[in-house]
Amino acid sequence: MVIGIWPVLLGGAYMISKRREAVAKEEIHEAEEHAQAKAEKAAGKKLAEVEAAHQKKLAKIEADAAKKVAEAEAAAAAAVEAASASAAAPAQDAEGAEKSEGEDA
After folding, report:
1. Given this model, what pLDDT does residue 34 score?
2. Strand, coil or helix: what is 1?
3. Residue of higher predicted confidence among 75 and 3
4. Roughly how many angstroms between the first and final C-alpha of the chain, as a whole number?
């Protein structure tokens, strides 16, 4: 009788250990999936933050560039105006000098 019980006991112990291994593998697989999903969510959030910071920095750079272009255009316009004013002043002085020479004679 004892000899007939050993195969059943050993078979039962074997099945229990196999089932325990299968459950452990499932739990590990679920934990891996959960960890991967959590990491992807964190990476997506970090990526969104980096993208927002990049867009903000890009907008600031564009605003600064537009400001510098406007300043350069204003400086160029002032230089052109000053150059035309200085070119017009000698012409007026030359006309005035011709008139005064004609009046002296």
Report:
1. 98
2. coil
3. 75
4. 155
Task: Answer yes or no: is pLDDT of 66 > 50.
Answer: yes
Residue found by looking up tokens 């400001």 in the block: 67
- Average pLDDT score over the chain: 87
Look-up of token digits 């002296």: 104
Q: Up-side HSE of residue 97: CA atoms within 13 Å toward CB? A: 6
Buried (b) or exposed (e) across 51-89, using 16+ Cβ within 10 A? eeeeeeeeeeeeeeeeeeeeeeeeeeeeeeeeeeeeeee
Could you give the CA distance from residue 99 to residue 20 in angstroms, rounded to a whole number? 117
Q: Report CA-CA distances (Å) from 9 to 17, 23, 79.
A: 12, 21, 103
Tell me, what amino acid is at 83?
Answer: A
Question: What's the full length of the chain, in residues?
Answer: 105
- Measured CA to CA, the distance from residue 96 to residue 91 in angstroms comes to 9
